[in-house]
Design brief:
Elements lengths: L22 E2 L2 H7 L1 H9 L6 E3 L6 E3 L5 E7 L4 E7 L6 E4 L2 H15 L11 E10 L2 E10 L15 H8 L2 E2 L14 E5 L2 E7 L8 E11 L2 H10 L1 E6 L11 H13 L4 E9 L1
Parallel strand pairs: 1-4, 4-6, 8-13, 10-14
Antiparallel strand pairs: 2-3, 4-5, 7-8, 9-14, 10-11, 11-12, 13-14
Helix pairs in contact: 1-2
Length: 275
């Protein structure tokens, strides 16, 4: 039997039990992580109290507010993240391994001592009708809030358009005809709401979200009717600062024309997924 050294009084502080968390673990997430890990999360053993919401990037507290567990799965890696339940439901999200590794590097950098991390750019998406050859076509205009660099690159610059051109989007100098269909990509529309822009999965796998709405976006009835008529949506993309938030469709069209004339616009027609 071990004995305490003579002359030294000891006082053992009992370990406080974990605080149960206000977590939502969906059946899909539970199936991936297993019942034992899911139960540990709910009991507060493995879940953080405070976190940065993976959707809106603002602080949350799983002890005080309903929180969703979101499992991102790549080809070889899986990352469990947390989000305000009002931002995202608990779910499994398939992403490319490259996207997931980039997110892991960002998280590691954020947790590193004294490491400055630039704010990650977010893709802003605006819906509108664009007149081409006398006919209205549904369009999505994508513009990041900051420069997009190539994954893994440490160099400054903006690779947003080159990356999309490599995926098959075509540079435009004028908007005078409907761009070619980019097969493998699609726009997910369900119950009159815009959910995501999907891109091909790696190795011919299931499509993954290239952009996903924090909360499904309601689209105008005439936009939805045009999308159902054409069964495709034209996606325009421009680098940060090229388009801006335009309050009217005529101003949006003017901004698109100026971006095209300046060599800062790419586009493709994406098939419609859903209704």
């Amino acid at each position: 039997m071990s004995r305490e050294p003579p002359g030294i009084a000891t006082h053992r502080i009992p370990r406080e039990p974990p605080v149960p968390r206000m977590l939502d673990v969906s059946d899909d997430v539970r199936a991936e992580i297993g019942d034992e890990e899911a139960d540990r999360l709910l009991a507060g053993e493995n879940a953080p109290g405070s976190y940065d919401c993976t959707s809106c990037r603002t602080p949350g507290d799983s002890e005080q507010e309903h929180t969703s567990t979101v499992l991102f799965i790549g080809d070889e890696t899986a990352v469990l993240a947390f989000a305000h339940a009002t931002c995202l439901p608990s779910q499994v999200v398939q992403v490319t391994e490259e996207q997931l590794q980039g997110a892991v590097r960002s998280i590691a950098a954020e947790e590193g001592p004294g490491t400055p991390v630039p704010e990650q750019a977010v893709l802003g998406v605006t819906s509108g009708l664009v007149l081409i050859s006398g006919e209205l076509h549904p369009a999505l205009v994508v513009e990041p809030t900051g420069p997009i660099v190539r994954p893994g690159s440490t160099a400054a610059g903006d690779d947003f358009l080159p990356l999309l051109i490599e995926q098959g989007f075509m540079p435009l100098t004028r908007i005078e005809s409907v761009p070619s269909v980019l097969h493998g990509w699609s726009v997910l529309l369900a119950m009159g709401q815009l959910h995501a822009v999907l891109q091909p999965g790696t190795g011919g796998g299931s499509p993954v979200a290239w952009w996903q709405a924090h909360q499904a976006l309601q689209v105008a009835e005439n936009w939805r009717a045009a999308a159902n008529k054409h069964q495709q949506v034209i996606m325009f993309a421009a680098p940060v600062g090229s388009i801006g938030r335009q309050p009217r469709e005529d101003l949006l069209r003017d901004a698109l024309d100026k971006a095209a004339a300046g060599g800062k616009l790419v586009a493709a027609a994406l098939p419609l997924a859903g209704t």
